[in-house]
Amino acid sequence: xxxxxxxxxNRYIHFLIKSDYLSNPLLTFLFNSGKVIWVDMNKAAPSxxxxxxxxxxxxxxxxxxxxGRSRDGKLRKGKNGVAALSLSSKAPIIxxxxxxxxxxxxxxxxxxxxxxxxxxxxxxxxFDEYYxxxxxxxxxxxxxxxxxxxxxxxxxxxxxxxxxxxxEYPY
Length: 171
What we know:
This protein is an alpha/beta fold. It has helices at 2-6, 25-32, 45-56, 81-89, 101-104, 128-139, 143-164; strands at residues 13-18, 35-39, 60-62, 96-99, 118-121.
């Protein structure tokens, strides 16, 4: 919710949300009132294809590359899905770092605390230098190279998120 309320967009933002939240009726109601693409982590491909379609249409998509909330307030290792989305759709990434959100709603709490946090929005990141090689690696079914490129792009994204959230990214 912090990210949603902080983004200066005057258009809909599609959110990728884990289907785990479907078990919570309140969250399901809130999420379904917006533009949500539900992701079943056991079979994520259909959701990723739906997300790529939205990006190719010029829509805005919010993705949390760590795949969930941090249990200790520190950045976790980013997952390569965000890189695959950007590389496949050629959409830029606008990194957002949140400093202090852990103090507002730590794991195990249902009601937020009154506390300050900073939402820092970075400059768009483009990965033009990877598009051709990435597409060729996919065509050749060179899975190690595809994964390698996705890992490099994920590391760049997460390093910028770490900078914006005043943290280190050790991965």
